[in-house]
Amino acid sequence: MLNRDKFQATIEGKQTDLYLLNNDKGMQAAITNYGGRIVSLLVPGKNDAITDVVLGFDSLQQYQQSSQKYFGAIIGRYGSRIAKSRFKLDGKEYNLYPNNGQNTLHGGKKGFQYIVWDAKKIGNNVLELTYLSKDMEEGYPGNLDVKVIYTLTNNNELNISYYATTDKKTIVNLTNHAFFNLNGPASGNANNHLLFINADSYIPVDSSLIPLGKVEPVVNTPFDFRELTVLGKYLESDNEQIKNGRGYDHNFVLNVNKENSLCSAAMVIGDKSGIVMEVLTEEPGLQFYGGNNLNSTNIIRGGGKDDFRIAFCLETQHFPDSPNQPMFPSTVLEPGEIYKTSTVYRFSKNQIS
Predict the structure, then answer these.
(1) Is 250 among the catalytic positions?
(2) Is the pTM of this model over 0.85?
(3) Which residue out of 177, 193, 250, 318 is catalytically annotated?
(4) Which of the residues in the chain have pLDDT under 70?
(5) Residue of 137, 138, 283, 315 with catalytic role
(6) What's the CA gap between 192 and 235, in Å, rounded?
(7) Any catalytic annotation for residue 315?
(8) 69-106 pLDDT, tens digit each
(9) Which residues contact 21 (CB under 8 A, 6 or more apart)?
(10) DSSP string, 117-135
(11) In CATH terms, is domain 4-349 a member of 2.70.98.10?
(12) What are the residue boundaries of the structural domains of the chain, listed by start?
């Protein structure tokens, strides 16, 4: 059981708290407004056993002190990497903070994972988070007014809806960085999960994980997850891309049926729990990250450590480095436009043998 008191504090004059969302099917999400983080996600599995499928911590202090910055957090202003920590809009160059070698990762030095969001719980199953990211915060232009709504439905879905408006031309790419292990946090690494990704192509990267500026087919590569495949099947491959990422840290180009519609992105099955997680999104890409930088330095909820590849991330998003890659879908947001996108994590049990 999570202790709400351990998530209550004052940070930069704002109050943090822990919010519980429940549905009528025995599913529960625990979210803190510190970083908008999914702290816990309880899902019924085999024989109705309740499993926490998200890695997290027991207290706010642990999140603040963790060497892994992004557990469960809302990522912004820009999810993934921007090459050489700069981009141009209308001929003007904007410089960002280099927090990943010479590149910018997940928004910069103080991304949205460190923000105390304004929170409003609506009924038992909805949490609305809002934040005003001021002009030139972390180097990004425009006052960006952001809203993220978490909804836990009676279909055992966690729906994350993102909205943003700006008063100046800017770039936006929001996502969530939940680390999943459908067998539970103390169940060992996630390499034996079964994984399907609805993508015929992916984006190859250089040794610093910046896109090479092209899209390549997944066929006859370790990136072909178009049928349910053991997640770790190709991790020992001598494929150059696997070496570049120390495993998987790549963006998949999703097969979408219609622009701006909610489409199937991925499916994962916990090999021990029998829990099935489907991912649906309006985004064109899915960043599959295999937990390659987890290194047993943090004690996670349940008493275990965040061991190498103990969990994985499926981050729905636009493509990495899009502001510097003209062939990629645009991440530019203009004044008067509304950034609006949704992602759904849908859970079931014993559906596939």
Answers:
(1) no
(2) yes
(3) 177
(4) 257-260, 350-353
(5) 315
(6) 11
(7) yes
(8) 999 999 999 999 999 999 999 999 999 999 999 999 99
(9) 28, 29, 30, 31, 121, 124, 125, 126, 127, 150, 151, 152
(10) -EEEEETTTEEEEEEEE-T
(11) yes
(12) 4-349
